[in-house]
Amino acid sequence: MTRLSMKTIKQLNEKDLKSKVQESRSELAKLRIDGSKGTLRKQSGKLKPIRHDIARMLTRLNEIRREK
């Protein structure tokens, strides 16, 4: 999964954001499992950006809910 800019996130609707959050969380879980096994080496730099993307998407979801 590639990094998402805030501009892209703002263009998505609530349903798409929820699905992207779910995808990102599952990818993060897989990476964490690989990290605990010790097989993460080359992908260790992906953890932090995925966490930041999830936070951005959740922030946007909260903004959408407040607007309603």
Q: Could you describe the 3D structure shown?
A:
The chain has 68 residues and is mainly alpha-helical. The chain has one domain (6-67). 75% of the residues lie in helices and 0% in strands. It is built from three helices and no strands. It has helices at residues 6-11, 14-37, 47-67. The termini are far apart. The model has no long low-confidence stretch (mean pLDDT 93).
Computed structural class: mainly alpha
Counting DSSP H or I runs of 4 or more residues, the number of helices is 3
Mean pLDDT over all positions: 93
Topology order in helix (H) and strand (E) letters: HHH
Task: Give the radius of gyration.
Answer: 13 Å
Topology:
Elements: H1 6-11, H2 14-37, H3 47-67
Helix pairs in contact: 2-3
Which terms summarize this structure?
68 residues; mainly alpha; 3 helices
Short summary of the structure?
The protein contains 3 helices and no strands. The chain is mainly α. It is elongated.
